[in-house]
Write a structure and sequence with these properties.
Length: 170
């Protein structure tokens, strides 16, 4: 049994670097995406409940509003997953608007559970977006230590270079 990789594959370090995420991505990006997907599911749940319990005229308006909110949330989730800069702002606005939207119906039956979940998720989404705002992953640090060779140290006139300084006389 041969434990060596095939010759056409790059070395393991190069393979890991090739599959590493983008250096400019946000740390909470995946969590925010999942929260946005959950918010879209809750919007659709509330939309279905509105269709099942409301009159025909009111149900049409609530269904359109719920579908539009779910579509906007899904689009924002895709933008967040792709690392679009506008997606963070949109996620912040969706999170900030979720709690008042849920409270508008008054937490009455049959909306109690979806409204409570929407309000809690909206608060968590807002906090997550604000907690990760401005943070990006640091680029990978080189594993090799180039030392002082090739560095541009500014030395005063007449000073010896670093490589010529002797620490121990003799």
């Amino acid at each position: 049994m041969n434990s060596h990789p095939p010759p056409h594959l790059p070395p393991p370090r190069a393979r890991r670097q090739a599959t590493a995420p983008a250096t400019g991505s946000r740390p909470g990006q995946h969590l925010i995406t999942v929260m946005l997907l959950a918010a879209a599911a809750l919007d659709l749940t509330r939309c279905g409940l509105a269709l099942a319990t409301a009159t025909h005229a009111a149900a049409a308006g609530l269904a359109v509003a719920g579908l539009a909110a779910a579509a906007l949330t899904l689009r924002t989730a895709r933008g967040c997953q792709a690392g679009r800069p506008w997606a963070g702002w949109a996620a912040l606005l969706i999170g900030a608007a979720s709690a008042p939207q849920a409270a508008a119906s008054g937490f009455r039956i049959p909306y109690t559970i979806p409204d409570t979940a929407t309000a809690a998720l909206g608060i968590l989404l807002t906090v997550t977006v604000l907690a990760t705002a401005g943070q990006t992953r640091q680029p990978a640090q080189p594993t090799e230590n180039p030392g002082l060779a090739g560095s541009s140290l500014l030395l005063p006139a007449g000073a010896e270079s670093v490589s010529k300084i002797r620490l121990f006389p003799g």
